[in-house]
Amino acid sequence: MNGPLKRAALACLLMFGLLMVNVNYLQAVRADGLREDSRNTRTFFDRYKIQRGRITAGDKVLAESVDTGTNKFRFERRYPEGKVYAPITGFFAPESERDMEKAENNLLDGSSSDLLLRRGLDLFTGAQTKGANVDLTINPKAQEAAYKALGDSGKKGALVAIEPKTGAILAMVSIPSYDPNLLAKPNKAEVNAAYNKLDKDEDKPLVNRAIERSYPPGSTFKVVTLSAYLESDDTVGPETQVDAPTRLRLPGTTTDLPNFGGAACGSGRVTLSFALEQSCNTPFAQIGMDVGYDAMLEQAKKYGIGGDPLEIPLPVAGSSIGKRLDQAALAQTSIGQRDNQMTPLQMAMVAAGIANNGVVMKPYLVNKIADSEGGEVQSADPEELSTAISEDSARKLKEMMVNVVAKGTAGDAQIPGVTVAGKTGTAETATGQAPHAWFISFAPAEDPKIALALIVESGSAGNDATGGHTAAPIAKSVMEAVLGK
Prior knowledge:
By secondary structure, the chain is an alpha+beta fold. 36% of the residues lie in helices and 17% in strands. The strands form 5 sheets. The protein has a 6-stranded mixed beta sheet with strand order 3-2-1-4-12-13, with no helix packed on it.
């Protein structure tokens, strides 16, 4: 080979080498930056080429991709049920996705390895690839009843309902909500403006209060304290007598802990059942101190409190009884105050565990996933999370919680012909601020089909809100929807 040919060959090899280096640099180093570059519109348009799968619940379509008939934006995401299901579905926006749209994104857009066979068949037949359909465990009647009861009244709060035997989530409502259709338009400027407005709203409609925010649980937590007591001594039961002073001096302080409203609790010595029925503070504060922090912490963990982070598959904020401090702090923790923080989902799990004879099932939202032709890809497989209490302790707790509804603070939750179990809670927030109103419940007590937790946030139902009069009637309407009453 003569000199000019050698030099030409070397130059070609060098240029080819530089080209390969540049390609690998762009793909491996600069790829993320280029994808996010505002000048790169290819990925933006690509998001709308695939017909994403539907998100459904029962006979309701919660999210679907509609063919617009245009070339640039072939499919546009729509949410027919809007605000009612927004905290669950989330949204599919030009540059991001949220909640179920994010959690199951690879299935919804058809890119999951679980859909490899379906994509192969589509390639062979020439059919356009579509995403998988995600069917949820949500009971539309329960969801809509909860949304109406909370939303129409102007209250802020959240409700979670669970099927005790499986852990399937039947309803998950957060109020105030938002319209996901405003965030699904293929127009970045409009979506960003709508998102920023929602994000700056002081009522925080984008926050799913059911799983993303925790609150002091108030007296609903007394069932956890009572669980620890029952588990510590199998001779303890509904008729066990306990001290119930009007005020209890907190150890190491000059502060007295009163009952709600400063009221007396019976004659000063009452049965456990009466103490729970009337939601007396002093006996449960003393019980918590008697069983001790370690036993309280262990009992809480058995219900899932402070354990491994939950995904349903949406991520769930943690719940906690707080750190070990002193006996005075433990007394307050035992009645659901101090550093005690629970999500509504966590308190629904507590209610469901008691309803299910002491066994807490892992909560989940996805019932099944099918490909675009209806072939099953995944289906729910209920899983035990833990055994929180013995079957005997659960039986005793059920009896006492039934009495709370039948002749105690939760009379407004009574359903004719149905035995309802429950526990009210009125959680203090800050000095001069209205309390949160809580209610946990399950029904029918003999064979529970639904367990739930509900919180009405501070101030949204007036300054005198209580779990019994504010939250219990809302829970009743949801239970009636599930039970067909």
